[in-house]
């Protein structure tokens, strides 16, 4: 392909759970309009919040009374997948349109793999080697219905592992003519307290056995600017996109 694909790229750090999910919904609605076929966004959460997959029941998955007392907001993602406590993580989303395969565009079956490859390049730019997961990694002692488990406690295909441990979760929504991918990448180490809000889970040090973070893999901290540049580089240098930087006011 001689002509490089175009993506529109923006960062919105330190926003609430409500803002983050509504903004990804907005990007999904805007995909394909005015010639803007793909949007990549990198963002963080402030204050911390829990996001649920679009088909999850909060009362079945979470201790909602505990969350209310702790002042932690719960939001629904437009994508599927399982619950995530967004604290000390960074998220990357991609909203785009589906093309007919005969037109040379991306198809639904290719979305996960393509997005995961971009994330792998993002991690490489942050000195972290990752591989695709091949299936669940949670021991039977912790299973109380896989759909109830926090996202980071098991890795499904196309999610990413570093040093054999899960470092990134990926969730997908596919509509009639457009799609949205959302990922969560752990920046600093988890603690057992990160899982206090979840029902049906053995809450001890064993929950930390198969999860890792950027700080643990690199023994260093990363600024928001470094994270943003790492993704931009992955898009332009690695995947060959022509990257157009935009801000939230342009959406």
Q: What features would you describe in this structure?
A:
The protein has helices at residues 17-30, 58-61, 64-70, 108-125, 214-218, 224-238; strands at residues 6-15, 38-45, 49-52, 73-76, 84-86, 89-97, 131-132, 160-162, 165-174, 178-186, 242-245. It is an alpha/beta fold and 251 residues long. The protein has one domain (6-250): BirA Bifunctional Protein, domain 2. The strands form two sheets. It has an eight-stranded mixed beta sheet, sandwiched between helices. α1 (17-30) links the parallel β1 and β2. α4 (108-125) packs across α6 (224-238).
Q: Would you list the SSEs in sequence order as H and E? A: EHEEHHEEEHEEEEHHE
CATH topological fold name: BirA Bifunctional Protein, domain 2
CATH superfamily: Bira Bifunctional Protein, Domain 2
Task: Give the name of the CATH architecture.
Answer: 2-Layer Sandwich
Number of domains: 1
Q: What is the share of helical residues?
A: 25-40%
Q: State the end-to-end CA separation.
A: 28 Å
Detail the topology: elements first, then pairings:
Layout: E1 6-15, H1 17-30, E2 38-45, E3 49-52, H2 58-61, H3 64-70, E4 73-76, E5 84-86, E6 89-97, H4 108-125, E7 131-132, E8 160-162, E9 165-174, E10 178-186, H5 214-218, H6 224-238, E11 242-245
Parallel strand pairs: 1-2, 1-11, 3-4
Antiparallel strand pairs: 2-6, 3-5, 6-10, 7-8, 8-9, 9-10
Helix pairs in contact: 4-6
How would you briefly describe this protein structure?
With 251 residues, the protein is of the alpha/beta class. It has one domain: BirA Bifunctional Protein, domain 2 (2-Layer Sandwich), CATH 3.30.930. It has six helices and eleven strands.
């Amino acid at each position: 392909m001689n002509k490089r694909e175009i993506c529109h790229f923006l960062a919105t750090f330190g926003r609430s759970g409500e803002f983050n999910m509504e903004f990804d919904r907005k990007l999904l609605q805007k995909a394909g309009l005015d010639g803007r076929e793909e949007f990549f966004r990198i963002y963080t959460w402030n204050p911390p919040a829990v996001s649920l997959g679009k088909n999850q029941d909060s009362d079945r998955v979470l201790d909602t009374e505990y969350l209310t007392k702790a002042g932690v907001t719960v939001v629904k993602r437009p994508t599927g997948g399982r619950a995530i406590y967004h604290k000390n993580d960074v998220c990357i989303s991609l909203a785009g349109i589906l093309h007919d395969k005969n037109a040379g565009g991306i198809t639904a079956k290719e979305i996960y793999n393509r997005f995961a490859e971009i994330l792998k390049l993002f991690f490489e730019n942050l000195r972290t080697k990752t591989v695709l997961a091949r299936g669940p990694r949670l021991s039977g002692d912790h299973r109380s219905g896989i759909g109830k488990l926090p996202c980071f406690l098991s890795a499904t295909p196309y999610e990413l592992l570093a040093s054999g441990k899960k470092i990134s979760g990926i969730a997908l929504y596919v509509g009639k003519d457009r799609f949205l991918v959302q990922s969560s990448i752990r920046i600093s180490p988890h603690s057992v307290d990160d899982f206090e809000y979840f029902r049906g889970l053995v809450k001890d040090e064993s929950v930390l056995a198969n999860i890792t973070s950027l700080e643990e893999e690199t023994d260093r901290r990363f600024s928001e600017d470094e994270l943003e540049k790492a993704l931009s580089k992955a898009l332009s240098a690695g995947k060959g996109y022509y990257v157009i930087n935009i801000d939230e006011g342009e959406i």
